[in-house]
From TrEMBL:
Record-linked Pfam families: Methyltransf_33
PANTHER family: ERGOTHIONEINE BIOSYNTHESIS PROTEIN 1 (PTHR43397)
GO MF terms, alphabetically ordered: methyltransferase activity
Domain Histidine-specific methyltransferase SAM-dependent: 81-326
Domain of life: Bacteria
Gene3D superfamilies: Vaccinia Virus protein VP39 (3.40.50.150)
Keywords: Methyltransferase, Transferase
High-level lineage: Bacteria, Bacillati, Cyanobacteriota, Cyanophyceae, Oscillatoriophycideae
Organism encoding this protein: Zarconia navalis LEGE 11467
Protein name as annotated: L-histidine N(Alpha)-methyltransferase
Length: 334
């Protein structure tokens, strides 16, 4: 990373033909995959601005300390481990993973780092942040679509000798259907491996009231500008519709809900993608994005359905951010 050339590993799920087909499907199926809002440098930079402005973990000292407590507990548990793999799934800008890495390196350790993201730009940004913290560590950024990368852990394991893994999944669960991503996370965990997991929470004792309380973190101009970018870049006349926001229940896990953004067509829209005509009639709704909100109790229950045990948990004082130290169900060391 410090030389003029950077080595990046691209999983087949992010090969151009696969990515482009998924991209087209989103417009014809009228449901944009969340990952396509992070693809370009422009989109990544817009997302980073939203994260800095609205994330509970950004600039909130108590929230930062919540993560630090988790990192300290993890470091203490790994007291005798000198060789580790840090696999940062959905690494984003790498801020949290870099702080974790800094904690781990308070003792002399040989750590190989894998910042993994669907965005090439974010994978590189995260790799750079990790390298600054750990200049002696080997950092291997990977670009992949986690939903289509169940073999990723086998690929990583083939890269080097078997080491205990710390897998992080910070702030990612809101943007995945839980029944699609949690089986993959469960397959990543073996033996004494650790999963560090965080989720955006609905604060207070009333779940739906809590979601409504934090809705302004989503329903704002920065987020709307970020989400509309994919339509503008595709040549959609956005003046023929408007963005709406609503809270809707999950189809399979009825005890959880998500915040969903839709582009509602008010006047017929026609445009071409790959020489194919796309036509949206007035009244058509295209889902642009969704984000789930949880509670710690719901997290424990849902993770348990996939053989993942919450060993310790921490919440910030606002109850908007939860951090969880997890392992595979039945692991004796816990």
């Amino acid at each position: 990373m410090s030389s003029s050339l950077a080595t990046v590993y691209i999983h087949p799920s992010q090969f151009p033909d696969c990515v482009y087909q998924n991209y087209l499907d989103g417009f014809f199926d009228r449901e944009i995959d969340n990952r396509f809002h992070y693809d370009s440098v422009k989109q990544s930079q817009k997302w980073l601005k939203i994260h800095q402005a609205y994330s509970p973990a950004s600039g909130n000292q108590d929230c930062i300390q919540t993560y630090e407590r988790c990192f300290e507990a993890t470091t203490n548990h790994l007291d005798n481990q000198s060789q580790l793999q840090l696999i940062a799934l959905g690494c984003g800008g790498g801020e949290k993973d870099s702080r974790l890495l800094s904690n781990l390196l308070k003792q002399e350790r040989d750590i190989t780092c894998y910042p993994v993201d669907v965005s090439l730009s974010l994978a590189l940004i995260s790799a750079r942040a990790m390298e600054k913290v750990a200049p002696q560590s080997l950092v291997k950024p990977i670009v992949c679509n986690l939903r289509s990368a169940r073999d990723l852990i086998q690929i990583i394991d083939r890269e080097e000798e078997k080491r205990q893994k710390i897998i992080t999944f910070f702030g990612m669960i809101p943007n995945f259907y839980p029944d699609r991503i949690l089986p993959i996370l469960s397959e990543f965990l073996n033996g004494e491996d650790i999963l560090l997991f965080s989720a955006n929470l609905a604060p207070g004792s009333n779940y739906l009231q809590g979601i409504n309380k934090i809705l302004p973190q989503y329903d704002n101009e920065l987020t709307r500008d970020w989400l509309i970018t994919i339509l503008i870049d595709a040549g959609v006349d956005i003046d023929r519709g408007k963005i709406s926001v609503e809270i809707e229940p999950d189809e399979t896990q009825l005890e959880i809900s998500r915040i969903a953004f839709y582009f509602e067509v008010e006047r017929e829209i026609e445009f071409k993608l790959d020489d194919r005509q796309v036509q949206w009639q007035a009244g058509t709704r295209i889902r642009l994005f969704f984000s789930y909100r949880y509670t710690t109790t719901k997290i424990q229950k849902i993770l348990g359905c996939y053989g993942i045990k919450v060993v310790e948990s921490w919440e910030d004082k606002t109850q908007q951010e939860g951090v969880y130290l997890c392992c595979k169900e039945g692991t004796k060391t816990w």
